[in-house]
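Re: that chain you flagged

S.,

Sorry for the slow reply, it's been a week of failed gels. I finally had a moment to sit down with the sequence you sent. For the record, here it is as I used it:
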Amino acid sequence: MEPEHPSAITEFAEWRDAMAAVLEELARVLPFQEDRIRASNEATSARTQAAQIRAEVAMDDN
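Prediction finished late last night. Pasting the structure tokens below so you have them in one place:
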């Protein structure tokens, strides 16, 4: 669930980007390939979500 206040929404997007970075780092060191793939996919998803959130905020600002 995303927050409703614009600044909180922006912070949520930043948090998703931060989580993506952590997942990418994790994907580099996990011992099992399946887990590395999952972490990488989740990082991609988090970055995509952050970009979508920012796009929505930008549209709302117009």
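What I noticed first: The two ends are 24 Å apart (CA to CA).

Talk soon,
D.
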